[in-house]
Design goal:
The protein contains eleven helices and no strands. The chain has one domain.
């Protein structure tokens, strides 16, 4: 009887260890997925947005009527209203919480890091919201309607889709004969409001960049802490994210 109990206890401990090892490996996989998403927005989307805003502000400050009605300005104005939503995953973290938490981890500091970093991004991004003004609405009211299908910020999501039969397809276009007439005058009349809104949009985008940089730092640190855990010393964590991408393909 004692031998049987000892065997059962040993088996339970082994099962718990394997389960915890699986949890930790899944955390690393999700961290890599999140870092991939963060890096796309931080290193590409936000800098592109800021570059467009810089050009818009320069033209507005110049007051050059020819530049104010140029298609390049209208393109920059429309596309600079974009605000790419950050897609983060935390399904492994939620599964662990729903299963009763980190009973087998026996590392309160690491547990605190995991909980804080997987729940923290939403808090960080909420702090950027008050900095955003009405720039997108102002721009939408000034850009000629027949250009909106081509320069809508969401058009890129469709054009970059691997499943799009024709990535050059545009949404139905609204025709307004007078839409382009007086564009420069309308923009010039709204220049002061546009400049204030564009500067606020720069402040918002800059805050988003800092929030993303903090997330990148936190997730990178957490990944290092998890990979260094004794239970993962014999697990190859270098290609966990790659394996997920291959499975999805």
């Amino acid at each position: 009887m004692l031998v049987a109990l000892a065997v059962d206890a040993w088996q339970q401990e082994r099962d718990d260890t394997e389960q915890l090892q699986g949890y930790l490996a899944s955390f690393v996989r999700e961290i890599d997925q999140n870092l991939f998403s963060i890096n796309i927005i931080k290193d590409d989307v936000v800098p592109t947005k800021l570059a467009r805003l810089e050009r818009v502000i320069a033209v507005l400050e110049s007051g050059d009527e020819a530049a104010l009605q140029s298609e390049s300005l209208l393109s920059d104005m429309t596309l600079s209203t974009s605000n790419a939503e950050l897609w983060l995953t935390r399904s492994s973290y939620d599964s662990v919480i729903n299963a009763g938490g980190f009973r087998q981890l026996d590392d309160r500091e690491l547990e605190a890091w995991i909980s804080g970093i997987f729940t923290g991004p939403g808090v960080l991004l909420k702090q950027t919201t008050p900095l955003r003004g009405d720039y997108p609405a102002l721009v939408s009211g000034l850009v000629p309607v027949d250009m909106m299908a081509a320069y809508n910020p969401l058009a890129g999501y469709f054009r970059n889709s691997d499943e799009a039969e024709d990535p050059n397809t545009l949404s139905p276009t609204v025709t307004e004969p007078s839409s382009r007439l007086g564009t420069a005058q309308r923009i010039l009349a709204s220049r002061d409001d546009l400049l204030l809104a564009a500067r606020a949009e720069v402040s918002f985008a800059t805050a988003v960049w800092y929030a993303l940089a903090r997330m990148e730092s936190d997730f990178t640190h957490l990944r290092r802490r998890i990979v260094d855990h004794p239970l993962l010393q014999e697990v190859d964590t270098s290609n966990l994210f790659d394996s997920v991408v291959e499975d999805a393909d």
